[in-house]
Design goal:
- The chain is an alpha+beta fold.
- Helices cover about 25% and strands about 40% of the residues.
- The chain has two helices and seven strands; from the N terminus they run E-E-H-E-E-E-H-E-E.
- Strand 3 and strand 4 form a beta hairpin.
- The chain is globular, with a radius of gyration of 16 Å.
């Protein structure tokens, strides 16, 4: 096992082999890398990141962003290409309901965003070797869609 200290942070991430892990990257490390790739991609295409991993009772919002006068709640899903499963398959009806509740909590904690347009984006991240692919599905779902 190798311990990696990320420069500029106090966070220590452990890397090592786990059963089912591709190229020795465990799932927490892989998720951390994928969130960074997604955030950089969103910045490149004009999103302003307001919060990362915003936590509240009931869970966490991966990214909260602002673009085109809209507050955007982003759910990041990452997979290794080799798994054969689509990242978006993990955003089921229960996950969507929880994200809507978390967004309501975020708006209660940040009254400055009251009344602004909001949407939910799905950010799908794939990795094959050293290559990352990112797909942004804007307005992926709306409250009440089942």
């Amino acid at each position: 096992m190798m311990i990696v200290r990320l420069q500029g942070t106090s966070r220590t991430v452990r890397r090592g082999l786990r059963s089912g892990a591709e190229e020795g990257v465990d799932s927490k490390w892989f998720g951390f890398l994928a969130e960074g790739v997604a955030a950089r991609h969103l910045k490149r295409i004009g999103y302003r990141i307001l919060a990362r991993n915003w936590r509240s009772k009931g869970g966490e919002i991966d990214l909260v962003a602002w673009r085109d006068e809209t507050l955007i709640f982003c759910e990041i899903k990452a997979r290794h290409v080799a798994t054969g499963r689509e990242p978006g398959d993990a955003i089921d009806v229960h996950k969507r309901r929880r994200l809507v509740q978390l967004a309501d909590n975020y708006l209660r904690h940040h009254p400055e965003w009251e009344g602004c347009a909001c949407r939910f984006d799905a950010i799908l991240v794939w990795r094959a070797g050293w290559c990352w692919q990112v797909e942004v599905i804007a307005d992926a779902f709306r409250p009440g869609w089942e």
